């Protein structure tokens, strides 16, 4: 058997999810940057099958990596047999510095042991890099000039009706419950395609009328349930969303600075400028 391993600085529940979920597998399952996994399937149970379609990015080469799970112990062990009969065992072990993942597999006969170990280690190293990147917050900044006073912009942005209008870009059912006063708890809510309530649980860290508002996120509402601990929300806890209003001669510059999890930047880069344009439209009416 050949063995490769890594220590990934994420909780074991998150490490397991990223290892076993197709939408994550397609992001990390490659040994070099000129290969990728455009499609993956996982039936995570004993007797269930899996498939990873691995291809060179130029489309010249590709193959299906298939197998069947022979043992699945959640958050502890995965054993499987590959299509060619070779076996593999993956173990997950929590520790103070993160989750240790060890993968042992039967080698094939076409490539050297050293080359096979290097290839599988490269894949598990990519997994570590991707998994840990999801734990990090990045800061995005947006701004807009509005032909209105800071007082008018501030009021439009935070009022019940105004907030619903400019944030409808993110979710048509967008609204808030709570107070904008400094130190107050507030929830920013919407509905998913199935009509279930979701959103953020937050607190107002600072509110200087017409000048500055700072929001700290504490957790999430998922499927109508408040969640403030666990791998589903830990990335977002402590994230900030800041709004700065600067007026000169009746024209206001609004600057937004928000922390967001890795992978959400494309979404916000597409939606936030549209939301600020809607705010501008409201204020300049």
Mind summarizing the main beta sheet?
8 strands, antiparallel
SSE order in H/E notation?
Answer: EHHEEEEEEHEHHEEEEEEEH
Please identify the structural class as seen in this structure: alpha+beta
Portion in helices: 25-40%
Number of strands: 15
Give the low-pLDDT segments: none
Distance between the termini: 71 Å
Shape: elongated
| Overall pLDDT metric | 92
Work out the radius of gyration. Answer: 24 Å
The percentage of residues in β strands lies in: 35-45%
Number of helices: 6
Short account of what is shown:
Helices cover 25% and strands 44% of the residues. With 285 residues, it is α+β, with helices and mostly antiparallel strands.
Provide keyphrases for this structure.
6 helices, alpha+beta, elongated, 285 residues, eight-stranded antiparallel sheet, seven-stranded antiparallel sheet
